[in-house]
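Figure S4 source data
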Amino acid sequence: MAVNKSNRLVLTMLFISCVVCFVDKTAINFAIIPMKSELNLSSEDIGMIMSAFFLAYAATQALSGYLVDRYGARKILSQGIVIWSAGTVLSAFSAGLTQIVIARFIVGLGEAVFPPGSSVAVAEHFEKSRMAKAKSILTSGASVGFALGALLVPMMIAAFHWRTMFVILGVAGGIVALALWQVLKKAELAHDGRAVAALSTKQDKVSIRAILKKKITWQIAVCYFFTNIIFWGLQSWLPLYWVNVRGMNMVTMGAWSAVPPVMGFLSFLVSGWLLDRFFSGYEKYLLAIAASGTALFIGLMLSSSSIPLNFAYLTAANIFLNTISITVFVTIMKRFPVKMVGTATGLINSLSQIGSFISPMLMGVVLKWTHQNYTDIFIMLIIFAIIILLSVMGIKNEPSGFSLPEQEVPV
């Protein structure tokens, strides 16, 4: 399947959707600063708010992957964007802890669709030899979303109010959902009127058992579990660290916070190229390099008192974490049959997103126990990076990719 105009348009729209997804996902990290004082939230309350998103996100990954395989990327992805946009708008009308937790839970339900849905969309429209490049371009939207969120969200909060900011983001998401629906519909018609989403019309328990029986499923899940703890631990608590410990103001902190994701954008593209060019079937080596780099630069953050140097080290750590992320998803896309990409992605991501769920609460508890000592947080994250390194070294090199035994392929 050659890369044509229709495929490029699909990839562009998926990229934009990814940007909006991550702006919405990260907005709470900045909004929580004024919300903390306005709504009298404790550290434990903040941890609950952050984790509510990941509870829904992790719990519904497997179901989301199944639904995408069953009903196609267009329908499920578009509906997912509508759901998370509605949750974002509801965040604006929250009057206390319970309402905010519910709103963030709804955002998590909608965004749970995006990882398996976008992987299926790529698998539907691109040859295997082009999947890593397409997925890396799409996933680079996460860095753009983080950068835009870091720049625009604090500015909108300062200029208007955190409630107004959530309304603006929710409306923007609704517009993107409609546009994605139209683009994917036209792409389906471009394939001789056949719905490319109908790659699989049936999924059963046999396919799920086959995925869970594979050792690589659990190896990838463990790797991504600890990656998510590190990544979302940094994303959730660093804004408070920069403001409360380092004395930065909101706008300056937001500007500096845009630097790591800007460089992360390039890291996704480079990682996709490396995976296609040098590490196809040997992904564990790239994962090991990235895990080592993550541990190193978080350690350097711990030892530095310079804000510019700290953001430089954070940028480097972010680059390596992005490399782990894209490698995980490309490994799934290349080592599982196309008809099972959504389900496999959903299952593995569901297991690994438990790390995202516990991360904000874990950080909150550790900070409470240590009387807001962030040094212990950084040490803990370094240990988790070392665990990632150890877990990926057991992955078997399979240049030819993974395939199910004949009798286990669902029909």
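Figure S5 source data
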Amino acid sequence: MSKTSISNLVSRLSLLIILSFFFTTVRADNAPDKELVSQGEVLFKENCKSCHAVHSIEVGPALKDVSKRRDAKWLAAWIRNSSLVIASGDKYAVDLYNKFNKAQMTPFPTFKDQEITAVLAYIDAESLKTPGDKPPVDDKNPPKEEVKDDTTSTIILILVVVVLILVLTTLIVFLSVIKRFLKDKEATLSESDKELVNQKLDLVVVVKSKMFITIVTLLFVAIAVRACWLGALSIGVEQNYEPVQPIPFSHKLHAGDMKINCNYCHTGTYKSKQDNIPSVNICMNCHTHVKEGPKYGKEGIAQVVKAYETGAPIKWVRVHNLPDLAYFNHSQHTTVAGLECQKCHGPIEEMEVVRQHSPLTMGWCINCHRETAVNSKDNAYYDKLLKLHADSKKKGDMTAEEIGATDCSKCHY
């Protein structure tokens, strides 16, 4: 081999080594920090997963390639308090807010820059993955809901039943063959074995046996105890209570179709410890002019007018009622906590006749206090508590439980 050929070969090898080193370095630089992604995964699953997914639209938009759509500064501001970004008039934020039915994203004011970076790193890492059978999605083209196929489960259930029937049939055949075999050898069997071979099923004997009586007694006791336990748990629980009112009134028409705010009729919604049943005067604000309804005609409204003219109150039947031993402040939940009426009362705007949607039990209230983040927006009262929460290094938002909402004295005098 000539010196020129050797020189060319060395030059090519050197170039190949340099290029390999360069691309390896670039890949290493671009590879996501595994520790950062791992931290982001934990934060995402604890705080974001209930409303967001990377490759599909859930309550909020799909987050795939969100770092390419918005810069890090915008995303940090949005995560900490989306309401401020929307209030600033940012077109993208306003369009997104309107697109998702003006659903308010939970603010995360205590998130540090590193935590936001970690969450975005996790989303970027997940964005590179291809979902199994889901097409790529974006904010403007929500995917169609997948219909769950229960065919596999049905087939498995049928196979299990068939196998059990085959096993039972096999046992019966086997016992029949054994009995026939022993019958043929009956002359050589002892008296006790002959008795065993020739015995017949006697239901009376089975029913009178101690084993059968014990099993039936235990089953009866278990069923009775369970029934008593469930009955005890249901005492005082009026969930789905739907009384007939003296005058037919459609919340679906008033709150749903006509979009009348709850506070217009229930004037204590945002300012009182107890919300109130509307007075006849409030009804007459509209029904001085509106004398016929689209569903119940003139009769119902005529009863309202008659009550107004005679001064006799309408005896509405109370639907939601807490026991006297429980303290509940309505304005604390609506005004301070910022909860919507539907949180406790359910889809009231869809109800023709109002019913009690939630159980309103102590356990139900406590679970809500454990899960609900404190609404600290524009409320300096919570500033020190938020700082203490941040210093405690607890993950997630500060919940109502952390500020004493599960203490007995909070709800019981």
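The CA atoms of residues 336 and 375 lie 7 Å apart. The chain has four domains: 1-31, 34-127, 150-186, 251-411.
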